[in-house]
Input
Amino acid sequence: MTKAEAAFAGLMSGATLVGRFTLGSDDVPKPERYELGTVRKVGDGAWLIQARIRYGKNDVTLPITLPVQWAGDAAVIVVDNVGFPGLGTYSARVMIHGRRYAGYWQGSGYGGHLFGVIEPAAAPAKNAAPADKANQAKAQPATAEPPASPAPPPPATPQPSVPKPSAAD
Output
């Protein structure tokens, strides 16, 4: 694993992505939040990203294997027509640089942009009791929390049924 790949895995594992997304021609960004679990390289350019996706009445935890490509020191998560069980099929390109992310996403007939900050996993408190440190070290399920489902749109501007997979498993 390269130094950049190790840094990517360290930053993304247990991280929370907090930002905004747009939908079609709607220029008012809506809030989004993704909570990730373990992120690790599993093959040549392939990464396993644990994500819990909560959207509308759906609440699923998925281990998703996606390609990650590199543009210099920036990672680009590639989602090409990936089906998320019960949620739909999506494509996206999400660039990770430093502690920020940005990109685009699309579903069937709709899409938009996404951007925000990456909040790394919290380190255990130095003065925490051993039991507390053990609890803090337990892997928490990844959460990709898509935006709430808007009311059905007119045929010309369908609404998404799932947010763009930014760092989905």
